[in-house]
Amino acid sequence: MSTHTERQPRIDFMQRSPQLFKKFLDFGLATTRDGDLDATLAHLVDIRASQLNGCAFCLDMHVKEAKLHGERELRLHHVAIWRESALFSARERAALAWTETLTRLAPTGVSDEAYAEAREQFSEKELCDLTFRVMAINGWNRINVAFRSVPGAHDRAFGLDKAALA
Question: Is 127 helix (H, G, I), strand (E, B) or coil?
Fold first, then answer.
């Protein structure tokens, strides 16, 4: 017997708040276009934050985007276990750790140790760009979780159907 229950979407936030959606979309796109992070790193950040936040819509989307951009499937499977996996570079590990730190903010804030670990791998500008990227994906996760966006619902519009991960 399955415990999965069909969850219905709540609100189409893109339609109900188009101006705010457009501005937030522009912000999210700017973290890619105007930042110093490469696409591979950005995909790993988006996937890990989406896993932590339980955002099925974003996790589905970013796994497909990563696959379309040439990411290896085994690495996609290993994002959830990145600490135990040998498939990630020191820079990727630092980005994933920073993503986790900012996604699950401790009551005491960001530790000096977490900051120092990130600074070992990223310049000040890169760390700012990475932080904006984490902010953006966490925002997308929160709105998609709140309104129960359906995974894969916009695949054709976003060109994600080409990932062949149906």
Answer: helix
